[in-house]
Specification:
The protein is of the alpha+beta class and 264 residues long. 57% of the residues lie in helices and 8% in strands.
Length: 264
């Protein structure tokens, strides 16, 4: 599927089904549609970027009450779009996804910006000038200097802003970043079963990702899924035969195969 044809709202809600298998996706799609109708009612000229951003900010952050969850940033619910809409709490990327998709419904193009540690949005006006928007902080408009200050806060002054940090990212990259956030939360809690579900979804998006195949192997091994672990390790070696850990992985796969043979 072409990247621009990916429906981010439906895809994000599909991720949420890992936690809520019976989730009614259509009802939450309708919620986003309704937010767009409310924003549209406040706009006189969609080509007026300042007016449109002000309307988006008013409806999403003041009326709907969406805000960044500073008190419990690593709560997995911050990554599930249904929870973000229900609770009004999210992290930069999920708040940005809602903002971006409401904008798309209005014909106001917005692009994800994968700045390390703090996802942003950008809009290009008809003259090519860009506006950076911080959805975690109520739709603040940022300069490059503001972005550096955000990085200083997150990385204690150890990271310098580079131009590529503010490049637009693809829809696949947005979904993968949401998944990687969830994976980090689950791994920190040693919830390998849920982490495995998330890695499976990453591999739906990027099936030829050697590092994710290897990580799935290790998660499967931790969960006692030895046959699947051996298959993934062998697949990793096919993908990355010259990897620095190839010999170690080869020995691990061989050990698992020997163990499986003894069990038969």
């Amino acid at each position: 599927m072409d990247d621009e044809k990916i429906n981010l709202v439906r895809a994000a809600l599909t991720i949420a089904r890992t936690e809520y298998p019976d989730l009614d996706i259509e009802s939450y799609v309708a919620r986003v549609d309704e937010l767009a109708h409310r924003v549209e009612a406040r706009i006189m000229d969609i080509d007026d970027a300042a007016q449109t951003i002000a309307a988006l900010n008013h409806v999403l952050f003041q009326q709907a009450g969406l805000r960044g969850n500073r008190e419990d940033y690593y709560d997995p619910r911050n990554s599930f779009l249904n929870d973000v809409l229900d609770r009004g709490l999210g992290i930069p990327i999920t708040l940005a996804l809602i903002y971006m998709e409401v904008g798309r419904r209005l014909g106001f193009p917005l692009f994800g910006v994968g700045m390390p540690g703090h996802f942003l949005l950008k809009h290009y006006d008809i003259d090519g000038r860009e506006t950076l928007i911080d959805c975690f902080n109520g739709g603040d408009i940022l300069t490059a200097q503001d972005c550096q200050r955000r990085l200083d806060e997150i990385y204690s002054g150890q990271m310098t802003l580079r131009p590529e940090f503010l490049f637009a990212v693809s829809r696949r990259q947005i979904l993968t970043r949401i998944l990687n956030n969830l994976k980090t939360v689950y791994l920190s809690a040693r919830n390998f079963k849920k982490a495995l579900l998330i890695v499976d979804l990453v591999l739906v998006i990027y099936p030829r990702s050697p590092e994710d195949v290897k990580q799935r192997a290790l998660l499967r091994y931790s969960l006692g899924q030895n046959k699947g672990a051996a298959e993934d390790l062998e697949e990793y070696l096919k993908m990355s035969p010259d990897a620095s850990d190839a010999d170690e992985i080869r020995q691990t796969a061989l050990s698992i195969r020997r163990m499986l043979a003894l069990m038969n």
